[in-house]
Amino acid sequence: MTTVKLDNPIFAISARADELRAEGRDIIVLAAGEPDAPTPSNIVDAARRAIDDPELHHYGEASGLTALRQVVARDVFAKTGTTWSASDVLVTLGTKHALHLALGSVAHDGGEVLIAHPGWPGHRGAAIAAGATPVDVGVDADHNFLVTVDSLERSWTPRSRAVILASPANPTGSVYSREALSAIATWALTRDVWLIVDDIYDAFVYEGTHASMLEAAPEARERTISVNGVSKAYAMTGWRVGWLLGPPDIVSTATRHVSRTITHVPLITQIAALEAISSDPSDLAQTARRYRARRDRTVEALRAIVGVDCPLPDGGMYVFPSVRELLAENRSGITTSAELASWLLEEVGVAVVPGEAFGAPGRLRMCFAVGDVALTAALGRLTTALTAV
Ligand SMILES: Cc1ncc(COP(=O)(O)O)c(C=O)c1O
Fold this sequence. Notes:
Elements: H1 9-22, E1 28-29, H2 41-51, H3 66-80, E2 89-92, H4 94-107, E3 112-117, H5 121-129, E4 133-138, H6 149-155, E5 160-166, H7 178-191, E6 194-198, H8 213-216, E7 224-229, E8 242-245, H9 248-261, H10 267-278, H11 281-303, E9 318-319, H12 324-329, H13 337-348, E10 350-351, E11 353-354, E12 364-367, H14 372-388
Parallel strand pairs: 1-10, 3-4, 3-5, 5-6, 6-7
Antiparallel strand pairs: 2-8, 7-8, 9-12, 11-12
Bound molecules: pyridoxal-5'-phosphate.
């Protein structure tokens, strides 16, 4: 059997962790970009009922189930105070697909897309797959890893078509304030650049509340494409449901693309997403409180290790500590974060992602959206191993 080599180092680490587990090794995975909890049972039950409904065994609309698009439009209104209808929403195969469709609509002819660096490699991949040209916008720890008007202006060229902003961001956990979003929108309008806002982690903001571009810069509504999905908030990464919301031309272009390629997102998973978004919001708030406590525990444990510098992320599901000082000591011949991550996986039994995967050598990404027992064990192993390394 031939296996396709994917250019996603995060999946490669998870695959190696699976191999080691198959050999009987006890591996704790903090490398995945997903909650380790199962999808909530009300959502699974709704999908089970959908399987038994013959209405859902046939073709549906390319844009997605009207009921789901209505609920998404209502949810965006609840979060941003801006009014949308079902026709402004396209249901996609996850947020990554929505990103791909958005970029294909505005930059398919090699137009440049400005993307935070370090950042999530999926943004870059979605741009390349859409025929666009990814361009790095340097962000750094001193500025909380946030894209600013100055950094955008430095990366801008006459071929720039769009900027992608994720808030909270992966892997840095940075969260944009309303003022920062508004300033970026003003810049984008001046430079005639599309704003593609990726709010996939919006349920997980731990300091203050999530600011949305739609709310911060209503004047940029005609230049804003918002993407989101159920993957992270409802532990539904495998179900593949997301959406794109934006101006009519963009939604029409993207819907035509969906119709010509995948026809539409499977109806059973759309029903599951409908149930997810209609769930009691206090369930999601409780998940966010649990993650916040895990974030705090993780940061505290890592800060106690000499040579590890762990910023407190304002949101998201990851910590992104620097291990540069630890590596500089070169106590056991390990000199890069890639080597350190490999050693942690093979010898210590904890899978983490090296910063190299995000364009940030000298850092490690660890997901804290894992169960308390696993997190405690992982932090114990990391403390012992990194203190001795
Ligand atoms: C910033 C960001 N956007 C989008 C995604 C992908 O989301 P989905 O599973 O909905 O495609 C991820 C997954 O890691 C992410 O980190």
